[in-house]
């Protein structure tokens, strides 16, 4: 398949919340699902209740581990950013969050309340062409003043699909 007619995308499965601080968050759920068995695209959903304002004092950490010999080994790829800066400047991971609830991420700080980020897809595009491995795990932490407020992970794979098929499956999220 030529790259001009193909899309590289990151598939994330087995989404798991490891921990969340009940003084800052409640009822946190992180899921990954397909809408149909024949649809290969997994959509992520994060929902929960924010109990305090989320501002630039919160730091987001993404750590990507490579799967080697049935063991996840930490790679050199990581992203660490303050929350508001991340939402306004990052063009890779924040795109997924913004696609789920764009209006929410146009303001900072984010007020307390119940939030549902539905139908997020993981990053896709030509930047994945040079990704150093095809299978691994993404760990995600939220900290404030070096205290972990939330921790989660999802297993990931880099896959390739015909562009026409990919966009057909992505369109499902707006109609389902």
Summarize this structure as a short list of keywords or feature phrases.
single chain; Ganglioside M2 Activator Protein, Chain: A; five-stranded antiparallel β-sheet; three-stranded antiparallel β-sheet; 3 helices; 51% strand
Question: What does this entry show, briefly?
Answer:
The protein has 176 residues and is α+β, with helices and mostly antiparallel strands.
Written description of the protein model:
With 176 residues, the chain is α+β, with helices and mostly antiparallel strands. The chain has one domain (3-175): Distorted Sandwich (Ganglioside M2 Activator Protein, Chain: A). The chain is built from three helices and eight strands; from the N terminus they run βββββααβββα. It has helices spanning 83-89, 94-100, 163-175, and strands at residues 6-20, 25-33, 43-50, 58-68, 71-82, 113-120, 135-144, 147-162. A five-stranded antiparallel sheet has the order 1-8-7-4-5. Strands 2-3-6 form a three-stranded antiparallel sheet. Strand 7 and strand 8 form a beta hairpin. Helix 1 (83-89) crosses helix 2 (94-100). It is globular. The model has no long low-confidence stretch (mean pLDDT 84).
Structural topology:
Blueprint: E1 6-20, E2 25-33, E3 43-50, E4 58-68, E5 71-82, H1 83-89, H2 94-100, E6 113-120, E7 135-144, E8 147-162, H3 163-175
Antiparallel strand pairs: 1-8, 2-3, 3-6, 4-5, 4-7, 7-8
Helix pairs in contact: 1-2
Order of helices and strands: EEEEEHHEEEH
Helix content: 10-25%
Tell me, rounded to a whole number, the average pLDDT.
Answer: 84
Question: CATH topology, which one?
Answer: Ganglioside M2 Activator Protein, Chain: A
Number of strands: 8
Query: Major beta sheet, specifics?
Result: 5 strands, antiparallel
Question: What is the CA-atom radius of gyration, in angstroms?
Answer: 16 Å
Distance between the termini: 29 Å
Q: Which strands sit side by side, in order, in the main sheet?
A: 1-8-7-4-5
Figure out the total of helices.
3
Coarse morphology: globular
Q: What's the CATH first level?
A: Mainly Beta
Helix-and-strand structural type: alpha+beta
Q: Regions with pLDDT < 50 over 5+ consecutive residues?
A: none
